[in-house]
Amino acid sequence: MKRILIQLDTDARPSVFDRVVAVDAGCEQLFSYGGITPENVVPLIHGAIFTRGPQDLKSTAIFVGGSQSDAGEAVLKKITESFFGPFRVSVMLDANGSNTTAAAAVQSVTHHLELNGAEAVVLGGTGPVGFRAAQLLALSGATVRVASRVLERAETACSKLRGLVEGAKVIPAEASDDGLAATLDGAQVLISAGAAGVRFLTADEWRSLDTLKVLVDLNAVPPAGLEGVEPTDKGIERDGVICYGAIGVGGFKMKIHKAAIERLFAANDQIFNTVTIHEIASELS
């Protein structure tokens, strides 16, 4: 029985990146569809669950991708609502690479610092990767300042995080010049997950943080989100701070992505989302 991965992408054209990773992860047949919405996905799900007997459905799996994380979440919800009884297949959600990237970033930090009780700041914390990094940090017991240039957006993100993580210690914070000093005060962990080309801090600014232990800059497009951090940094110490750059994290992200694809075919009832993908990262670390 050949292993079939069905790629459902919310963008008009299915991601070439996700297709290449699927093949490299050992997928034997790859069916790719673009322009997927909750309104048009159900016939594709029926095609996946009704063509093989229940005992063989573990050889079929679904990958949900696309550039918009919220759109991917909505498609995943509709997919799971379409399953019933034994008629289901395993599904992985990694829209915009947000789940695997966040998992790789947070797990990299754990090599150097116990997160339970730590003080963390996520710059760009309302974006797809930043939000999920904040979720995983909170799940690990850290107090997380979710920073945005618009405080109202940070407040909305924190409200959502409290619904996802019981007892989450999350604080809306400002990434603007006026509120940035207060946001960074006492931070031990700093993750920069802003949009490409956005610089949050100069090298002098983050080096001045006496409490800072580990930082991660996930921006591979110049200029760096955190000046002085090289994209290839992977656990490099700079002025007493352990640094990771986008490429330094990216190798682990790819390892997580491939491992998750492989594990989809172990059973037909798995849902790989932010939390479960981070569990895979923990096992691989």
Description:
- This protein is an alpha/beta fold.
- The chain has 2 domains: 4-97 and 252-284, Rossmann fold; 101-249, Rossmann fold (3-Layer(aba) Sandwich), CATH 3.40.50.
- The protein has helices spanning 16-24, 42-49, 69-82, 98-110, 128-139, 151-164, 180-184, 203-207, 246-264, 274-284, and strands at residues 4-9, 29-33, 60-65, 90-93, 119-123, 143-148, 169-174, 189-192, 214-217, 234-238, 241-244, 271-272.
- The strands form 2 sheets. Strands 7-6-5-8-9-11-10 form a 7-stranded mixed beta sheet.
- Strand 8 (189-192), helix 8 and strand 9 form a beta-alpha-beta unit.
- Helix 4 (98-110) crosses helix 5.
- The two termini are 31 Å apart.
- The mean pLDDT is 96.
CA distance, first residue to last residue: 31 Å
The stretches of 5 or more residues where confidence is low (pLDDT under 50) are none
- Overall average residue pLDDT: 96
The CATH class of the largest domain is identified as: Alpha Beta
CATH architecture of the largest domain: 3-Layer(aba) Sandwich
At CATH level 3, the topology of the largest domain is: Rossmann fold
Q: What is the total number of structural domains?
A: 2
For CATH, the homologous superfamily of the largest domain is named as NAD(P)-binding Rossmann-like Domain
Sheet with most strands: 7 strands, mixed
Strand residue percentage: 15-25%
- Please give the order of strands in the largest beta sheet: 7-6-5-8-9-11-10
Number of strand segments: 12
Q: Give the H and E element order.
A: EHEHEHEHEHEHEHEHEEEHEH
Outline type = elongated
Helix fraction, binned, reads 25-40%
Q: Determine the structural class based on helices, strands and strand pairing.
A: alpha/beta
Quaternary organization: single chain
